[in-house]
Design brief:
Radius of gyration: 18 Å
Number of helices: 7
Structural class: alpha+beta
CATH class of the largest domain: Alpha Beta
CATH architecture of the largest domain: 2-Layer Sandwich
Number of domains: 2
Order of helices and strands: HHEEHEEEEEEEEEHEHEHEEH
Number of strands: 15
Helix content: 25-40%
CATH superfamily of the largest domain: Fructose-1,6-Bisphosphatase, subunit A, domain 1
Oligomer: single chain
Shape: globular
Length: 293
């Protein structure tokens, strides 16, 4: 019989394991509630984007759940303009994208939750993460986590998350690419790079959910990017709540990340809302891209 997430977490720090289990339990509630949280709200987030009802609810729900644990010191959420202080005596600081790809809810496509966990106070560099995970609400609900001990995937069964695949490594050389932004706005050198990948037979897979698109790369290999655009030099993805956790997971799976100059995990954040061009995937593809850029 497959090991449960709870059993798998016995090899890591007890308090960290309890936090990851709390997130996994919370994800079940999110999955069940999504059909009841459709539509737009009358408020905007810190980025000036109209919030969906599901975004606001998931943000409030998860932060409340973190507060109940007593071990979360603070939270940086995509939906908030300031660090949320929870418990001065807490152990962990958490970054949160409550519902990544939430615009997909209306069309019943993939959405997810992205989490980064630190002992250092936020904001700080992604390399200081002690754990990261994402939950994908797809045809089945899956949870992918790393605590610096490899990347492990679990699938939600009737009563628990069960181990699906342990110590995942990106397949080499990879077969997919997924790129955000309009092609007409890509920088010329980046267009050249993608044209070369297409000539080599790489297939396009892009669904508008960072978690969903990255999950494809994790299983099939290749590269995902929301690049620097002529209209958005810093791209779209948020450094703390999106790019750092996913970059940490991809690195643990044998891949790499870059903003075009250095590893995303090395970037010193200037503020909690900072955006960053994001390129992640197989090491050879990232190294080739860095040389070209």
């Amino acid at each position: 019989m497959a090991r449960t997430l709870k059993q798998h977490l016995k090899t890591i720090d007890k308090e960290l394991a309890s936090l990851i289990l709390k997130i996994s339990d919370s994800s079940n509630t999110i999955s069940k509630e999504l059909p009841n949280r459709m539509g737009k709200s009358d408020t905007k987030n810190v980025y000036g984007e109209t919030q969906l009802i599901a975004d606001k609810w998931a943000d409030e729900f998860l932060i409340d759940e973190f507060k109940k644990t007593g071990i979360v010191k603070s939270v940086v959420s995509e939906e908030r303009s300031e660090v949320v202080k929870l418990n001065k005596k807490g152990i962990f600081n958490v970054t949160l994208d409550p519902l990544d790809g939430s615009s997909n809810i209306e069309s019943n496509n993939m959405v997810g939750t992205i989490i980064g966990i630190y002992e250092k106070d936020l904001p700080t560099q992604g390399k200081h993460q002690i754990a990261a995970l994402y939950v994908l609400y797809g045809p089945t609900t899956t949870l992918v986590y790393t605590a610096g001990n490899g990347v492990h995937e679990f699938v939600r069964a009737e009563k628990a998350f069960l181990l699906k695949k342990e110590n995942i490594k990106l397949p080499e050389p990879g077969i997919l690419y997924g790129i955000g932004g309009l092609r007409k706005d890509w920088l010329p050198l980046f267009k050249k790079y993608i044209k070369e990948l297409e000539a080599q037979g790489y297939k396009l897979r892009y669904g508008g959910s960072f978690v969903g698109d990255v999950n494809q790369i994790l299983h099939y290999g290749g590269i995902f990017a929301y690049p620097s655009l002529t209209t958005k030099p810093d791209g779209k993805l948020r450094l703390l709540v999106e790019s750092n956790p996913i970059s940490f997971i991809i690195k643990q799976a044998g891949g790499a990340s870059t903003n075009g100059k250095c590893s995303i995990l090395e970037i010193k954040p200037e503020n909690i809302t900072q955006r960053v061009p994001t390129y992640i995937g197989n090491k050879n593809l990232i190294e080739k891209l860095k040389k070209l850029l």
